[in-house]
C-alpha cells in the first residue's frame, strides 16, 4: 500500500436549524467557526466548519444545516459516532457543563484504556468526548465558556457501523493504509500511523441493526488526510485501478477532495491539507463573513438572500471577545 493517510481530516454531518447548530458548537462545545460558506453542490444551504483556532485538519466537524431536514436514522452503512479528544481527568467538568446546558449525557465508559462520555447534539447527532490517557498535544481554542484546560483538542475518532467487517476492514487497510490495532467483542479498531487522537476509526459490527438513513442528525461523510495534491491524484489512480468507484478531484476551495464509498456503505473522502482556511480571510476574522468560491460570486446577492440570518457569539472573534 504506497499511500497512507496520516489521520482524519474532517467529519461532515447534516444539521437542522443553522443558528441552533452554531450556538451549540460555539457556546456549548467551545469550538471556533472557522468558515461560513455554502454547500458548493447546493448553494441554498450553509456549510459551517468548526475546529480549532485555524481549522487545522484533524480538528474539523462541518455541517450542512437544512432547517426543514427530516430526522435521519442511525444504522449500518454510516458513521454513527463522532468523538472529540479532551484532556485526561476533564470528563467530570464536561458532564456538569453539558448538563447545565440542558444536554443529556450517558454514563462514562471505559474503552481501550480511555474514558468516553457519550451525548448528542440538538439534532440527535451521536457524539462523544474521549479523555486520552497519553494526552493530546494539539492546542485548543480557548474561550470564556470552555477554558483551555478542559477544551476540545480536535477529533479523536469516528465509529463506522457495518453489518460485517471484512470488506470494510480491507478498504481501511488496503485503500487508506490504516493498520488493525485492537478488537473488543464486535468493535474493531484501526489506526493511521502510530494511532491516537485524530488517527483512529472503530468498526462496529451490528448485523441485526437496520440500514442507516442519512439526514438530519447523522454523518454525511468522513474525510481522511492527504499531504498534497500530487499524492491525492496518484492515490485516486490507485483506487481506480483497484476497481473503486471514485469521483474526479473536486475543488472545495480550502482543500481538494475525492469521494468514494467503503464496501459497508459509508461515504469517505480523501482531502488535501492545503491551502487551508486563511486563503480568503485573515486568521483573526475566520468565520465571520459569508465566503463564496469564485464561481459562485456572481450569484452572491441571490445566495445571501436565501440563507437564514446567522448571529455569531462574540467568543468566535478573538479581537472583540
TrEMBL record:
Q: Which InterPro entries match?
A: Extradiol_RC_dioxygenase (IPR052537), Glyas_Bleomycin-R_OHBP_Dase (IPR029068), Glyas_Fos-R_dOase_dom (IPR004360), VOC_core (IPR037523)
Which N-terminal residues, if any, form the signal peptide? Answer: none
Give the domain of life: Bacteria
CDD domains the record matches: PcpA_C_like, PcpA_N_like
Give start and end of each VOC domain.
7-132, 154-273
From the UniProt record, which GO molecular function terms apply? lyase activity
The record's listing under PANTHER family reads:
RING-CLEAVING DIOXYGENASE MHQA-RELATED, RING-CLEAVING DIOXYGENASE MHQE-RELATED
UniProt name for this protein: Lactoylglutathione lyase-like lyase
Native species: Saccharomonospora azurea NA-128
Amino acid at each position: 500500500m504506497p499511500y497512507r493517510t496520516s489521520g482524519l481530516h474532517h467529519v461532515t454531518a447534516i444539521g437542522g436549524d443553522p443558528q441552533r447548530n452554531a450556538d451549540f458548537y460555539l457556546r456549548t462545545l467551545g469550538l471556533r467557526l472557522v468558515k461560513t460558506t455554502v454547500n458548493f453542490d447546493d448553494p441554498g444551504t450553509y456549510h459551517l466548519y468548526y475546529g480549532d483556532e485555524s481549522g487545522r485538519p484533524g480538528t474539523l466537524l462541518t455541517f450542512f444545516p437544512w432547517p426543514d431536514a427530516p430526522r435521519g436514522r442511525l444504522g449500518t452503512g454510516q458513521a454513527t459516532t463522532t468523538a472529540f479528544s479532551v484532556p485526561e481527568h476533564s470528563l467530570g467538568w464536561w458532564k456538569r457543563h453539558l448538563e447545565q446546558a440542558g444536554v443529556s449525557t450517558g454514563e462514562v465508559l471505559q474503552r481501550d484504556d480511555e474514558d468516553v462520555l457519550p451525548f448528542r447534539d440538538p439534532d440527535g447527532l451521536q457524539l462523544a468526548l474521549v479523555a486520552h490517557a497519553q494526552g493530546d498535544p494539539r492546542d485548543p481554542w480557548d474561550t470564556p465558556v470552555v477554558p483551555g484546560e478542559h477544551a476540545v483538542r480536535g477529533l479523536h475518532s469516528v465509529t463506522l457501523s457495518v453489518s460485517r467487517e471484512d470488506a470494510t476492514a480491507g478498504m481501511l487497510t488496503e485503500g487508506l493504509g490504516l493498520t488493525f490495532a485492537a478488537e473488543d467483542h464486535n468493535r474493531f479498531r484501526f489506526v493511521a500511523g502510530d494511532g491516537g487522537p485524530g488517527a483512529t476509526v472503530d468498526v462496529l459490527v451490528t448485523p441485526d441493526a437496520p440500514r442507516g438513513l442519512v439526514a438530519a442528525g447523522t454523518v454525511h461523510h468522513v474525510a481522511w488526510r492527504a499531504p498534497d495534491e500530487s499524492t491525492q491524484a496518484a492515490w485516486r489512480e490507485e483506487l481506480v485501478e483497484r476497481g473503486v468507484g471514485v469521483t474526479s478531484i473536486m475543488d472545495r476551495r480550502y482543500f481538494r477532495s475525492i469521494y468514494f464509498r467503503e464496501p459497508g456503505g459509508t461515504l469517505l473522502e480523501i482531502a488535501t491539507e492545503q491551502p487551508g482556511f486563511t486563503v480568503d480571510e485573515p486568521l483573526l476574522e475566520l468565520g465571520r463573513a459569508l465566503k463564496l468560491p469564485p464561481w459562485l460570486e456572481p450569484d452572491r446577492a441571490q445566495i445571501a438572500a436565501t440563507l437564514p440570518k446567522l448571529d455569531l457569539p462574540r467568543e468566535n472573534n478573538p479581537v472583540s471577545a
